[in-house]
Design a protein that fits this description.
It contains 13 helices and 7 strands. With 310 residues, it is α/β, with parallel strands linked by helices.
């Protein structure tokens, strides 16, 4: 096993990811060192002369490397743990095939650098990324030039939008019809480096029920209504049961925690359960406590229309 740094390997293999050009390797070594001896799959879009695939093969001792390129001649770069798939980033069928065939821990988009291709690719491949994995988009600086034909729909704009959606995401976004909204909900964090971005996927709690039980016991011991109020949000965000979420909301109300917001959360839970009348009643109670809140008022109006139309 080599003891060379990733940057040293990159320079020896002649890839522009090294400190000579973009300097990505310093960030990649910090981010991916934990995977160095794991049997992961690394999928990289953009093969060219194969220098990057060779770099990854020497850095990762057990990984399977999948290179993707539109040029058939890139097949010559396959061999050993290196595989090459030929297809285009604007071919949704091809991208879906990749998503079905591989379960990568790392995906790197160093392909066409066309913003529409980058958007389509992340929409199709991010769901296939393993939890705890990293999705990289390189060379974002290509999309901030006045003559870029992708402006104002450049990849950098898309990533900024994805960051906004990640910050603002809520439990219901997991089932959104919009692909980027669904992706944002599954993001743990986004890290910007010079010319690129690293997007990390959430890792679900493998012991969620035990975590919930431990939290519930502590909340009961605390006697805090605010804890019950926040527990509703935790349960919704982490896939807890609606029964538990409803009970938590009612405990928050019983203990006097933020009456308007506690009724609001109860309304959300009841709506998620399909109880439109109960959701409306809870929203109306929220409005009683905060009649100037336009968001609560809008919720009451929407649920009223739903109940009347049922």
């Amino acid at each position: 096993m080599t003891t060379a740094t990733l940057d040293e390997i990159a320079i020896l293999e002649g890839t522009d990811k090294s400190s000579i050009e973009h300097g990505y390797t310093r960030h990649y070594e910090q981010a991916f060192d934990r995977f160095r001896d794991e049997p992961i799959e690394v999928l990289e879009i953009g093969v060219a002369n194969g220098s990057s695939l060779r770099m990854w093969e020497k850095f990762f001792s057990r990984a399977t490397l999948i290179g993707v390129d539109i040029i058939p001649g890139c097949l010559r770069c396959a061999g050993g743990r290196k595989h090459v798939e030929i297809g285009s980033q604007d071919d949704i069928v091809f991208l879906r095939t990749l998503a079905e065939k591989y379960i990568p821990k790392i995906i790197i988009d160093d392909g066409s650098h066309q913003a529409d291709h980058i958007k389509l690719t992340i929409e199709q491949l991010f769901p296939a990324l393993l939890p705890g994995g990293c999705y990289v988009i390189e060379d974002l600086h290509f999309h901030n030039h006045p003559t870029d034909p992708n402006i104002p729909f450049g990849a950098l704009k898309m990533v900024n939008d994805l960051g906004f959606r990640t910050v603002m995401s809520r439990a219901g976004d997991a089932n959104s019809p919009d692909a980027l909204t669904r992706i944002a909900y599954s993001i743990d964090r986004i890290e910007f480096v010079r010319h690129a971005v690293l997007i990390w996927k959430k890792v679900p709690d493998p012991n969620l029920q035990q975590t919930i039980a431990t939290m519930k016991a502590l909340i009961e011991k605390s006697g805090s209504g605010d804890n019950w109020f926040h527990f509703v949000h935790f349960l919704r965000e982490h896939g807890g049961g609606l029964d538990e979420a409803e009970a938590a909301a009612r405990n928050a109300i019983r203990l006097g925690a933020s009456p308007a917001l506690s009724h609001w959360r109860l309304s959300e839970v009841l709506e998620a359960r399909g109880d439109a009348k109960g959701a409306l009643a809870a929203a109306e109670q929220a409005f009683v406590h905060d009649p100037r809140n336009s968001h609560i008022g809008s919720r009451v109006e929407r649920l009223s229309r739903s109940v009347r139309g049922a």
